[in-house]
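Human:
I keep going back and forth on a fold encoding question. Comparing notes only helps if you start from a blank page. Show me how you would write down a chain together with its backbone fold. Write it directly below this note and I will take it from there.

Assistant:
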Amino acid sequence: MNIEPDSKSKQEDSISNKCPECGGTGFISVWYSDDYSKMVYGDDRKIEYPRRCPRCKVSERETGCITGIPKLFCDADISKFRWKIYDNEDYMRKIHSYIASFVRNYKEWAKDNRGLYIWSKTSGSGKTFLACCIANSAMVGNDISMRFITAPDYFNLLKEKMDAEKGAVDKTYIYRVCDLLVFDDIGAQPSKEWYDTELYRLIDERMVNNRLTIFTSNLDIEELKCSDRVIDRINKCAVVIHFPEQSIRRKQANEKNREFLEKMGLIGE
């Protein structure tokens, strides 16, 4: 192997140019603690979560343009999720323990091939935002490949693949082989044999290769308009979490409106 005479100096320059905050890794560790983590773990210890480096440009390259995470949620991580905004504290504490375990013990979950199925019939309950928080934290903390796509968008890519000329780039490939996939809004696709077959292929290929999937849906698994074999596959590779039937989107909008009216002096604090 030939080595350029100035390779050492180039390497030294590269090291000296690394981000002083994250060392060029693209993420930093933050310590997060609230009443939920204290109650779940029974002590006052803080939980370590990974977060994208606020200074390093490496983190910018890992935003939505690559992962597919919606632009609004590109900087989301699990420490930013507002657990206390929900009404049922006991129930949210239980969900928090599941999510904290998934993020902190990702390799153990991956070894047993266990993803998540997060569902709620209520629109705006926060399930997609939570899935993005989980995925971002798991990605930067475990140095894994992650992608996000909605079910309708995935099937649109499949149609493009079928209509494309032979030899065209298969845009669906990355979603089959990435370490962690957020498959958003499953159940939104029509109930047709073609969709069912392709959905089975995606889930089965990921499962047999030990690649985790986080599903979100407005439907319980048993209510999905899919064949039994698809439902069985999801049950086998994902822990089901029934998210609260509460519209956080509406609650946050009401909070913002109240803050605005208070600022304008139209209502009292």
In short: Strands lie at 27-32, 47-52, 115-119, 146-150, 180-184, 212-217, 238-242. The chain has twelve helices and seven strands.
